[in-house]
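Re: duplicated header lines in exported structure tokens

Our pipeline writes sequence and tokens for each protein into one text file. With two proteins the header for the second block appears twice in some exports. Here is an export where it did not happen, for reference. First protein block:
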Amino acid sequence: MQLGETLLVGSFPLLPAGLDFLEQAASLALRSHERFPVLEISLLVTDDEQLRDLNHRFMGIDAVTDVLSFPAGEIDPDSQALYLGDVALSLPRAAAQAEAGDHALQSELQLLVVHGVLHLSGYDHANTDQKEHMWEVQAAILSQLGSPLLYPLES
């Protein structure tokens, strides 16, 4: 399974060295798509200002958020790669949530990546049943990663 590029926008001294832990989180969340030999997503790690702008422009919500997902679901006719879409997350927001929850930034970032990829895969939490199912799948993936964090703070 291949993943697309990870794009870092800005300088983030808080970001743990290396991004392998984010790729591992995304890979586990993508396992449900095993019929496609190549899966691609884009991961944008940015700041609150850009997440707020994306949230306003594409979701109509003028507020900062921690993670956004933009599903694509397109198959490249040449490579047969399934491009699921884009996940954008705010590193400053993730750092603040990690501090508020008294856990490692790496755990928070893994949660946000898994959460975003699950949205690309069709999961949602618009109602109680959907939320329970998504949280269950999310918790199982995070548990496989060895993360002590299984649910968002505002669950």
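Second protein block, exported in the same file:
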Amino acid sequence: MVKAKVWNYMKPFEGWPKRTDVELVEEEMRPIEDGEFLAQAMFLSVDPFMRGLSEKFTIGEPIWGTQVAKIVESKNEEFPVGKLVVLRAGWRTYSISNGKKEPPTLPEPYLLPDIGDLCPSVALGVLGMPGNTAYFLFLELCQPKEGDTVVVTAAAGAIGSIVGQIGKIYGCNVIGIAGSNEKGEWLVKELGFDHFINYKVDDIDAKLKKLAPQGVDCFFDSVGGKTAEIIYSHMNNNGRVAQNGSISNYNKEKPDYSLSLSIQKAIQEKNLSAKTLGVYCRSKDWMTGINQLHTWVNEGKIKYKESIVDGIENMFDLFVDMLKGKTTGKAVIRA
């Protein structure tokens, strides 16, 4: 009998997630039925949204999440043994799926496309949800044009690092905001960002006056809070904002996701377009984004970094480290 290691959500997160909020257990897997397959996790994704949406988790059930897994047993001809599959199985080492998209608006599960010599883990990052979030939200909501000044928060993360590089592909002046000089140097020296701001030590307002004297045209925001307020004050008339997330709020005892009065005022007075878009609304075009990102990776136009940790036993610790900004690029567990 196959046994799975599973991280269950046992108590609502209050402030920073605590080890007592979750539980690592073993679960015996039942035999698969006709139309199903059994998959063994190879790589599991750790993402900020897991904290932001944790209120929707079910007590006593696995924490949500996507993984790349190997099909080890199958009674579904569309998902044969030996193939790799991308699926939303949660934080667990084995899972059973019928291959159906539930709900139908999701792109997963799907067989891993041909990615050449790249590690399958990229299907959780640059060639997965984070990559497509950068691709669809930035291009559709920010509509970058050559010469635009683009500001990206959480710029050293899985999404922000790709947004900035797409901005450079489109001929933009890109400013990344991150939490350390080491991350900032990676953005500039390795990824081609024009400038970086260390939000922990720099005066963001003063830096933007110096680095973007003509104002900001596009803002890709994954952080919210005071940092966002400052950037909104530098937006040009008719600027475009992609509201991707509010990491600064996720771990507060009492999160406040409402827009501040200063942001509302900036939107009205400057005629800003400030929108959000659920990336899974583009599930029908999922492979269009993946294929374009894959092309850019192969051409050397997009680079990526992964923070990979071995062992599902370490998944919760990696989750917290990612939320605290201790990782760079995509956080991944290698099962």
